[in-house]
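Tutorial handout. Part one gives the primary structure; part two gives the three-dimensional structure as tokens.
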Amino acid sequence: MTIHKEGYGTIFLVLIVLLAINTGIYFLAGIEVTNFAALASFAVFALVLNFFRNPKREAIIQDGAIVAPADGKIVTIEEVEETEYLKTKCIQVSIFMSVFNVHINWFPIKGVVKYFRHHNGRFMAAYLPKSSTENERTTVVVENDKGTQILFRQVAGAMARRIVCYAKEETTVTQGQQTGFIKFGSRVDLYLPLDTRIDVELDQKVTGRQTILGWLK
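Part two.
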């Protein structure tokens, strides 16, 4: 287990703030308050470290498989109209990430990035359906060697204030390669062809790079 590079700045800032707070309490309050503050600060720092963890995992790499691009819980499986790029009916599969999940994102299939956009937006709770189109988000489309395209979005949540995406148009990506990182609670949406076989269920917990969500025809 290591710390993801996207967390270095945040972790350093939190450490400085906590040290400053504890130093002030040490000089202004009694020993009991100082000890309590130290314990609380340790818990906060441990949570921040846990959030930015970068686990070592072997990626599942299989032609036709759609591998989970994030850790979390399946909150949506439904037929919808995708209006930004694909402009057709798709199966939407959404994964909600709580603050306790790993927040790294990965490419669900291998192929060529055909489209990338970052959209500014609101910061509603990520579990709400309308967050997919109204919150700050990125949209990435990957086309495999058979010409099948899938679209997926990183969606910011109520606490998330920064989405990092490494996708670049016309670059080739591999299944399980890192797509980016979302800082604090958020979700990832996938828009898949209607003939995709879905192998997950609502409320199922999935693991990024390792859970197969379904199979492309």
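Part three, for discussion. The chain has a mean pLDDT of 90. The chain is about 20% helix and 35% strand.
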